[in-house]
Every structure is written in structure tokens, then in C-alpha cells.
Amino acid sequence: MGNMLIFGMGYTAQVLAARLGAAGWTVNGTGRAGNIAFDDSAGVAAALAQATHVLSSVPPLREGGDPVLQAYGAALAAAPLRWIGYLSSTGVYGDAGGAWVDESAPVGTGRRSARTEADLAWQALSDQVRVLRLPGIYGPGRSALDRVAEGRAHRIAIAGQVFSRVHVDDIASGVIASFAGPAGVYNLADDLPCSQNEVIAEAARLLGVAPPPMQTLEEANLSPMALAFYAENRRVANGKARRVLGWSPAYPTYREGLRALRRA
What we know:
About 40% of the residues lie in helices and about 15% in strands. The protein has about 260 residues and is of the alpha/beta class.
């Protein structure tokens, strides 16, 4: 068993914390769902003194810089931790024109410059760091099923556009697999990059409703953030995590993931 300190007890981190807690771990965390305030330096120091493992899921600041490293980087580097993890984004790879990218691909060319800066800063912190790069995350309450059911889903006609995604349970299993693996960078993605339209159509089929009509980007009237999402096109390879960590996704494609969510 271990003792985990999580910075940023958000959606993904809560799934991991529940799994670790069920296995007998002690888990402390910052954030609204955690038990420590991020700016409670004494509380963080006390938790860090007991921790064997530390994970950050806190995003970088909009203007650049990582808030966890700014506040606690020196303490993390000095602590005798067995494992340090950082949940990054495959957005660091930028636009690949639909090509496959793995961990050797260049980073920093896309819209996620602050994320790239944080990703590299965590890598430089310690020889215990595992940086886990994540594509679009889905799971209970946050999937195409929910968007279709709530009338928020879009199908947008962009030829050749593909995205990668990963079920939140598979992120948790990937984090746990990395406990025994070597430090480094790993992509955690499923096996089937595909268009968002395919996922939305499958969600509609499972719900027994008609899929939303196909639209152009202009007709969809998306937010600037969503528009930026469609500006990049890549397929994320997961071979290193499979080969080095022995990880494999329980939901290798969106089909298995959506079916499981629908049953639940």
C-alpha cells in the first residue's frame, strides 16, 4: 500500500483516488473535492511528509507557469518520494495533419504552449516523474451520451478530422501501472482515433434517437475553445504505455466505453 497526495482532486483524480482508497491506500488531496486547501502550506507539508506518491492534475496558468511547481516545486524535489506523476495533455503535440504521434514527436508547436511549458518543467523536476499525456477524457456524466441526451452534441462536416480519446477508468489504470514502471513520458489513449461524428452517431444509436444533423463549423456556432479543438488533427499512439508499463485499455475503442456507460 502507499500514501498518495493529489494536487487537484478533479474528475479524473477522484476516480483514481476512489480506486486507490478501495485498495487500502491513504489518499489526501487539494481542491474542492479534497481535504486540504491548495494554499494551506502547512497542511500540504504535513501530507507531503507522509506521502510515498504525488500526482498533479492541476492545469497550467493561462499566462504560463505551473501553480503546483511555483508553490511546492522545491519541496517536491527534496521529498523522498517513490513516484511523482503529472497529468498532461496530448495537445502539446499540436496539429499533425491527422498523422500518428508518439512520445518522440516534437511538442510546443500547437495552441497549448502553457501546457507544454508545464509538461517540460515537471519532467525536469526529478528522476521519479512520470508525465502522462491524455487526449479527450470521457466517462460517467461526461460522454457523448450525455451531450446527445441534453441536446448539446454536434456533428461537424470536416473531412479527415480525427481525435483520440480515453475512458477515465483507463487513465486510473494507466497511472497505477506507471507506479512500477520507469520514469518518463507516456501517452494514455485508446486504440481507435476517429472523428467525433462517429462517436456522436454511436451515442445516438445507443440512446435510440436520431443523431444531430451534420453542420459546418460556422453553423455550429462553437465557442472559441471548441473551435480551437477542431483546429488540430492527430492520432495518438499508445504503444509505449502498452510495451513499457504493461497497460492496456479496458475500453479499447469508444464503442466499448459507450456501451458500458449506457449499461450503467
